[in-house]
Amino acid sequence: MDAKGLIIFLVIGLVAGLLASLIVGGGGGLLYYLVVGVIGAFVGGFVLGALNLKIGTGNPVVNQIITSVIGAVIVIILARLLA
Fold this sequence. Notes:
Structural class: mainly alpha
Number of strands: 0
Order of helices and strands: HHH
Low-confidence stretches: none
Helix content: over 70%
Number of helices: 3
Mean pLDDT: 92
Distance between the termini: 34 Å
């Protein structure tokens, strides 16, 4: 992954973390949104892959944001349950 790909991945994670926090409730700073979104990208990819589900919006960036938001919501809910 080159620098441009890494920056896009981090921006997608940031957006996903922010959207997940808005959906589930709660807040945090930019670092919180970034961490939750990046972890959510991996969790969402794993969960959707395990369930054999595909997001078909026609735009790969939107697909990744939706996948990351789903994963980030799961991460936030699990973190609250464990806390």
